[in-house]
Amino acid sequence: MQLGATAQEQLAATLRALHQPAPGDAPANPLRGVALALRSDAFDARVALACQVSGSAVDACRAVWHEAIAVPIDVAPCWIHGDLHPG
Questions:
Q1: pTM of the complete model beyond 0.85
Q2: Counting beta carbons within 10 angstroms of the beta carbon of residue 51, is it exposed (0 to 12), middle (13 to 18) or buried (19 or more)?
């Protein structure tokens, strides 16, 4: 990190350093970093629970989910911080 760099610049530099292609033998997490479509069962269960609690916006939520899972995966596996990934 450069002296005098802003916090934003430091964060950006850290993320650029982190978001690198993953080696072929990188461990795979079956729940994180997978195609969203593979998580549809968990999503459906959580939406059903939310419907019991709030009872609203379920159809809109499902519509957004189906749009999201239709987006093609166009990146190679890489190391990421999933909370901050723009995709």
A1: no
A2: middle
